[in-house]
Design goal:
Layout: E1 4-11, E2 20-23, E3 28-33, H1 39-51, E4 77-85, E5 90-98, E6 110-113, E7 116-118, H2 123-131, H3 138-141, E8 143-144, H4 146-154, H5 157-168, H6 171-179, H7 183-224, H8 234-255, H9 269-320, H10 326-385, H11 388-429, H12 443-510, H13 519-572, H14 578-599, H15 603-691, E9 698-707, E10 712-719, E11 722-725, H16 726-729, H17 732-749, E12 756-760, H18 768-781, E13 786-791, H19 794-803, E14 807-812, E15 822-824
Helix pairs in contact: 4-5, 6-15, 7-15, 8-9, 8-15, 9-13, 9-14, 9-15, 10-12, 10-13, 11-12, 13-14, 15-17, 18-19
């Protein structure tokens, strides 16, 4: 039983940035979702997991960026694992890739069969044997890319033919033919070699003639300048150069300047030119070194004179202030500093007191004023209401009176209830006699009197008592509020007295007798104190500054004398001091001035520069004479080089003829392979084509070779009316049906042990009828083939679910940086 894909696990590949696991149906597995939701990424993950590459990712931008591994994955690596199963075995395939700079490169395949790992460089070969397929041809026979369909539908004839080659599995032959098409490069190389031969022939002969003419003219010119022919020889030139070398070596000894050694002179122009250049360089270096020595000696003289003069001046000044006692000055400075610190601290303290006094005084006065106001309020309240005890007694008395009134009101309320009962009884019984004394009565008159006289009198008394009760309750509340107010005033006055005492204590710390003085008097006194103390501070600072300047000047002068003395001792290499040291410096200056005089004589250098200048034309003549001789000797070598170039031309011409022969054979093979494949697939192509309802009139497809180089297919359809080119009369939907037929027939022929068809958006540009026809056809492919389809077309989804019994549909939601949201519907 053949294998089928049961599970795919993807992480970090293409649009997948988190682990995803998808199970596959034995029949049709459908991935449905909007464009850009990650459907193609899943299909490409299957292709990459099996073959190690994604077929269309080559050339262009794919060479500058890794399009396989997800750009946003944190681990910077992607993994695909596929599970393949047949009736008895389970195969696990896994590939892992680190993100790279390009999409190319192939990662090794890890394979497990029933849990047993197969690790070998030939793992892919072993897989091909098991599945009986070519991994190289997987993308043509198993996986119909969107790009392949677009090429068939929209491309130019040659590109369309390339797409048909991909569908047929013969694209590699076309690619091989294309690599052989290098006629132009070979012809260009032959032309370039021919131009080189012509240039060599022309330039060498012309160069030799020009060189001979130049030699004659140069020799004539030199003789006219007063030179004889003997001087135009290598021997005489060597003699003059050796003389110049001796002179320069003598100058090196004279100036005590060491330069590089001269190379050994050989009797040829190359050696002579080298020596000439070295002589010029050495002479320039010697003159430069001479001038540098003069400059260094001059600078040293100026340096010694300046330091010697400064040393004498500093010594004279130091003798004038030798009476200064630094220890006494330092003690005086220390005393002044201490006194200055004391005065400064005193000023700081008084200024702080000046800053604090107004604040503390304001706090004290404010508390004192608040205390007076509070005391006045308390006295006024006590005068009006009495103290808290008296108020409490009054409240007690009023409360007792209120109780009495309430009792009276209760009595009146009872009387009122009795009268009400009596009235109700009289009205009900209509009594003629008094129930108490048995006298006869008029109950109507009695009821009236009871209502008018007795009841009104009770109501009036109750009203008066209620008003009196309310007045007394108001008085109780007012007295209670006043009592609480007096108690709060007492509490506030107690706190104010404590705060005032603390404020008085703080003021006393600043001004012990502050109550006897005004704030202005105290402030003025302190300001006068600061003024007097500041004058003393300025005097101390001035005195301290004067002493510091005196000590600093003495210290600097002493340091300067010591420094200059040490420097002059180093320059004179002696331990002398004073006048003896200055005299030693003058002796060195005199010696240096003599050396400057020696270096200033440039007569010999100028003479040698003139000699070299006269030798320049002679050396040029000797070089051209030697070059002429060498060129004449090289002519046989030039002829040999030309023969080598001619032999290369002949080889290229043979290669061109051989490549043309190979290309013709390859083109013929490509044609025969394509036609053979088409012949083998013809019946199956038309079977699929008829099921997709290709065209109502042109029922059969006919694909033939229209042009051999490059190979162009004529894509026609046959009907009762004859043949027609598909591109002229077919709609894009019918064209799509033809392309699908070629792919499915080729896939059927190369099923091997993995009979699977993968379609990426197979119904693009199809109308409703063709979409349903494709869905019906897909339903017939199972169980012979495992079918995987990706589409964004809702109609296609509906038709597939309608006609296919075994279908598993996945919905891919909106894509995010984590990838799509995949749900099984």
């Amino acid at each position: 039983m053949p294998y089928r894909i049961t599970t795919v696990r993807v992480n970090g590949i293409r649009g997948m940035n988190k682990p995803e696991e998808v199970a596959f149906s034995e029949g049709i597995t459908l991935f449905y979702g909007q464009n850009g939701s990650g459907k193609s990424s899943l299909l490409q993950a299957i292709e990459w997991g099996i073959t190690g590459k994604i077929s269309y990712m080559k050339g262009g931008d794919f060479t500058r960026e890794d399009a396989v591994v997800n750009l946003f994955t944190k681990s910077k690596r992607g993994t695909v694992e596929l599970i393949l199963e047949d009736a008895t075995k389970k195969i696990s395939l896994q590939r892992t890739r680190r993100i790279a700079r390009t999409s190319s490169g192939k990662q090794p395949l890890e394979m497990k069969i029933d849990g047993k790992t197969i690790s070998s460089d030939e793992t892919e070969v072993e897989l091909e044997k098991i599945l009986k397929i070519s991994l190289e041809g997987f993308s043509q026979s198993k996986y119909l890319h969107q790009e392949t369909l677009r090429e068939v539908l929209q491309a130019k004839p040659e590109e369309k033919s390339q797409a048909i080659d991909k569908l047929l599995g013969t694209y590699e032959v076309r690619d091989f033919v294309k690599t052989l098409d290098i006629d132009r490069q070979i012809i260009t190389s032959i032309t370039s070699l021919q131009d080189t031969i012509e240039t060599i022939n022309r330039e060498k002969v012309q160069f030799l003639l020009n060189l001979r003419q130049s030699l004659i003219e140069t020799k004539t010119k030199l003789i006219q300048q007063g030179l004889n022919e003997e001087e135009l020889t290598v021997a005489m030139t060597l003699q003059k150069l050796n003389h110049s070398i001796s002179e320069i070596n003598a100058l090196q000894t004279k100036y005590n300047i060491q330069l590089q050694n001269f190379p050994t002179i050989q009797p040829n122009s190359k050696s002579i030119i080298e020596i000439y250049r070295v002589l010029q360089s050495q002479l320039n270096n010697l003159d430069r070194a001479r001038l540098e020595n003069i400059n260094q000696l001059t600078q040293k003289i100026s340096y010694l004179r300046a330091n010697s003069s400064a040393y004498k001046e500093a010594k004279d000044k130091l003798q004038g202030i030798n009476e200064v006692n630094t220890e006494t000055i330092n003690l005086k400075i220390e005393e002044l500093k201490n006194e200055l610190n004391r005065v400064t601290e005193l000023i700081k303290t008084v200024r702080q007191k000046l800053a604090i006094l107004p604040v503390k005084s304001n706090v004290y006065n404010s508390l004192k004023a608040k205390l007076n106001v509070g005391q006045t309020k308390l006295i006024d309240s006590q005068n009006e209401y009495g103290n808290t005890k008296q108020i409490q007694n009054t409240i007690q008395k009023l409360s007792e009176e209120i109780t009495i009134i309430q009792n009276e009101l209760n009595k009146l309320s009872g009387q009122q209830r009795l009268i009400t009962i009596a009235i109700e009884s009289l009205e009900q019984t209509k009594a003629q006699e008094c129930p108490v004394c048995s006298h006869s009565i008029d109950y109507t008159t009695l009821v009236k009197d009871l209502k008018l006289k007795v009841s009104e009198d009770i109501q009036r008394k109750s009203k008066d008592l209620c008003e009196l009760e309310n007045q007394k309750k108001i008085s109780v509340r007012e007295l209670g509020d006043e009592k609480e107010k007096q108690e709060q005033l007492k509490r506030n006055l107690f706190q104010l007295k404590e705060s005032l005492a603390l404020a008085a204590e703080e003021l006393s710390k600043l001004v012990p007798d502050f109550e006897l003085q005004t704030l202005d008097d105290i402030t003025q006194s302190w300001e006068n104190e600061i003024k007097e103390t500041s004058i003393k501070e300025a005097q101390l600072m001035q005195e301290l500054s004067s002493l510091n300047i005196l000590l600093q000047n003495f210290t600097q002068l002493l340091s300067s004398v010591n420094k200059l003395e040490k420097l002059l001792q180093q320059e004179t290499s002696s331990q002398k001091v004073g006048a003896e040291l200055s005299e030693a410096a003058e002796q060195i200056i005199t010696s240096l001035e003599y050396n400057i005089g020696e270096y200033s004589d440039s007569t010999t250098i100028d003479a040698q520069r003139n000699n070299l200048s006269r030798l320049a034309d002679i050396i040029t003549f000797l070089r051209d004479e030697e070059r002429s001789t060498e060129t004449e000797k090289e002519l046989p070598l030039v002829e040999k080089k030309i023969k080598v170039l001619e032999a290369r031309i002949s080889s290229l011409q043979i290669l061109l003829a051989q490549l043309n022969t190979i290309k013709q054979l390859a083109v013929q093979y490509q044609k025969e392979a394509a036609l053979t494949q088409l012949k083998r697939l013809e019946d199956e192509i038309n079977s699929f084509y008829s099921k997709i309802e290709g065209h109502p009139h042109f029922k059969q497809l006919k694909i033939d070779v229209e042009k051999e180089e490059p190979l162009i297919f004529s894509f026609k359809a046959e009907g009762a009316q004859g043949d027609t080119y598909i591109s002229t009369r077919f709609s894009t939907a019918q064209f799509n049906a033809a392309a699908l037929s070629i792919f499915m027939s080729n896939s059927s022929q190369q099923a091997g042990e993995l009979p699977i068809m993968i379609f990426d958006d197979p119904t693009q540009n199809m109308d409703t009828a063709h979409k349903e026809a494709f869905a019906k056809l897909a339903s017939t492919l199972s169980p012979k083939f495992q079918v995987i389809i990706a589409t964004e077309d809702e109609e296609v989804k509906t038709f597939l679910e309608k006609h296919c019994k075994k279908i598993m549909t996945y919905y891919l939601g909106e894509w995010t940086l984590e990838g799509p949201d995949i749900k099984l519907l």
